[in-house]
Amino acid sequence: MPRYFFDINDGINQRDDEGVECVSLQAAVHEAKRLLPEIAADEVPKDGERQAITVLVRDHDGQAVYIATLYYTGTWLV
Q1: pTM
Q2: CB 4 within 8 A of CB 20
């Protein structure tokens, strides 16, 4: 089963050196989509109103194969 790596950038680059075995690239994409809201729940900006969280998926050769980004924007209305 192929191993995919999920590098996270939430203002700090975090390289995944362990990876996760996924049955296919589509399964790896699903894992990236699952990770984003999970990360966002812990990383909502504490010192600002904007945050981008990115998951970059690499294959076993280190080649980037997919990227997903979730944006948070808060706006004061008062």
Answers
A1: 0.86
A2: yes
